[in-house]
Write a structure and sequence with these properties.
Structural class: mainly alpha
Largest sheet: none
Radius of gyration: 18 Å
Shape: globular
Oligomer: single chain
């Protein structure tokens, strides 16, 4: 992978991680369009690195929320709103963690330029986003059941082409969760999951081989590009959710998904 390719893919990741258009799907499309020659493990490793960058940008944007939750976690009170919110995050992590551990090899195989799958899943993301425009605006809170359902949506979003933010925010809105709460929970719930994924991959011997085969400089460039663009995209996405602008991304997913499917047919 060249530095220019890493820069383009990093920017692509940073922009699409928070916008509901599937960062993993766009990364796979970008790798194919740029003709980036990577093995499945190298491709997945680069994806993990740039996802870590956007996780860091999430922490920076929501640093006040993160610090508040940490502070409330260590308060002397036996139970408080902060601990309950953390419990909701833990509940939301379980489905994706289970899928990631049990089906790790199968998931790795999907990150190898499978544009037909990516295109199909982008269309699915489009339908989820379109469905949010058909529900009445409500102001529900995150609860135990909602946290579990959002966790299932996040697990499905492991598939390349399914937008994680689109699936989780879309599901939350369909469930009637207030828009700002939906966006905040969607972004906060993924932080520990990505950190856990990184820790697992770094301890994986096969992943260490991928690290040796991948140049360090492109990884650094991709990380920085994803982090900087992620800061901008995260802030933008929160405003878009507040203003109910997801319908435009639904049409975008339909178009890009159709193009990806058509590309594989040709």
């Amino acid at each position: 992978m060249t530095i220019l390719e890493a820069l383009i893919l990093g920017i692509l990741q940073g922009l699409t991680e928070f916008l509901p258009v599937s960062s993993s799907g766009h990364l796979e499309i970008g790798k194919v369009m740029l003709n980036v020659d990577l093995s499945a493990k190298e491709s997945l490793f680069f994806t993990v690195v740039v996802h870590a960058a956007t996780a860091l940008s999430t922490i920076v944007i929501f640093r006040d929320d993160v610090m508040m939750l940490i502070r409330l976690l260590f308060e002397k009170a036996r139970w408080n709103a902060g601990r309950q919110y953390i419990l909701f995050i833990i509940i939301s992590m379980i489905p994706a963690a289970f899928v990631g551990v049990v089906f790790n090899d199968q998931i790795e195989a999907l990150f190898a330029g499978n544009l037909l799958l990516v295109g199909s899943m982008l269309v699915l993301t489009g339908f989820i986003l379109f469905a949010t425009t058909k529900v009445k605006r409500k102001r529900h809170h995150i609860g135990f059941i909602n946290a579990a359902l959002l966790g299932i949506a996040q697990a499905i979003a492991i598939l390349p082409g399914v937008s994680r933010s689109g699936a989780t925010i879309g599901t939350a809105l369909i469930l009637g969760v207030e828009r700002t709460r939906a966006a905040r929970f969607s972004f906060l719930m993924v932080i520990p999951l990505i950190m856990g994924k990184m820790a697992k991959d770094l301890m994986d011997m096969d992943m260490s081989v991928a690290m040796q085969e991948t140049s360090v400089l492109p990884l650094v460039v991709g990380f920085v590009a994803a982090f900087v663009t992620g800061l901008l995209a995260c802030t933008w996405m929160v405003e878009l959710v507040k203003r109910s602008k997801l319908i435009y991304f639904a049409f975008y997913c339909f178009v890009v998904g159709a193009i990806a499917i058509g590309y594989t047919m040709i």
